[in-house]
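Subgroup meeting minutes
Present: P.N., E.W., G.H.
Scribe: E.W.

1. P.N. recapped why we're keeping a running log of single-chain structure predictions: easier to compare across weeks, and new members can see raw inputs and outputs side by side.
2. G.H. added today's entry (465 aa).
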Amino acid sequence: MRWRPFTRFFCLLLAMVLMLSSVGCGTKKDLRRRDEGEQKTWQGVITLWDFPRWEDENGNRYGWIERKIAEFEKSHPGVFIHLRKLKWEYGMLELRAAASTGTNPDIAPVAGDIDFILQGYLEPVDEFFTPEELKRYDERVLKALSHNGRLYGFPWFITTYGLFLNADAFRSRNARIPTDGEWSYQEFVEALQKLTYDKNRDRKHDYFGFNSFLYPGSYQMWGFLTMDGARLFDENGRFVLNSPEGKSALTKIVDLSAKYRVVPEDFGTGDEKQVWSDFIETKKIAVCPAGPWAIKILEEKQRQGKGFEFEIARYPSGSSKAKSIAFASGYAIFKQQDPGKRAMCAEFLKFITSEREQEELMKYGVFPAIKDLQEKASEDRHMKRMKEILDDAEFLPKIRNFTKVDEIITTQVRQAILGRKTPAQALDDAAEEIGKLQEGSMQNSNKIGDSNKEPAIIGPYGVGE
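Output recorded in log:
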């Protein structure tokens, strides 16, 4: 059969169209696949609520996290971390209120908080860690951030409190610095008496042996409450500080003001900044409790020629060895609807809690959650003393409504210090209030009708019992 010219032309044209169409479809498919691949990386805004930490070189207590945010945003175009700055005084109340109304942030340092976990606010994050990674962490930290075998946070650091001493003041007033950081309550008082005096001779003391601030979320004073062998909570999480040993210890604290007068008038009510300034700046206070973060600040003051030689001591012992209070810190992810955003939150938290970042923590004076790095941090003699205190410390308990429990304890201890109640009355009132609070929590749990009911009291100490 002979092909006519027109027919031949039409067939060639049709073949070219089909070929070009096939190429175009392939190109579109390739572009679509590439777009889908790019969309796998989530972009958007992540909200982070965080508390002030250690001061940087500019005195900014949010400087560290602001730098980490800037670094992460630079390496993750299209991802923005919005930081809301919380205050220690009421930050946890804000977080709880936000969670209950569904206005919570995406990330906050509340990992291991039993209330947030039981109410279903937090994401379990086990999938973001390998078994090999988990083995590197301090078991106490993992236990603190876990519940029912699930991990609810990215481990960051562990810390405690010790008593910081102005060694120059001790020597100038002929007060004895405790050997190896160990001293009795009587030795503690005798030193404070020598360090309390009237410098300007107006018949009023203007230099004092000791001071500390006292408010919820701050546990600097709690170590004193254990000096006669008392525990704050028993094995079932019940408040038991109203024991004879607890009442005796609180009496010793009250005596610092009422009997020995070795503390200023604002003892128990003073502002954190003022108390710290009186210790490190004006040097009107010779002994002040603080965390290991204070080591770096005091050492820097010495280098500037504005500081003083200092030592670290344990809380004084009464009829028993006192124990400091310790706690572990980690960041948690609140429940997420978008898996991509959840994964990006995890990526950010892995970044700020990585081994490299935890090693940087040593510059700020806290103990990393990674065991090997803890030992490295302890090479400094002051950090070694703090590590000894840490290894013997009591850890914060896993108790429902602990924020309110903390408020009750703080309020009642302050009432005793101010002389408005006897130590016995204050602790008995605290026990009664906490008992009612925990009973109410049990009743509320029962009303929910959940077949997997959780008790109001989860257990004793979250870590390191």
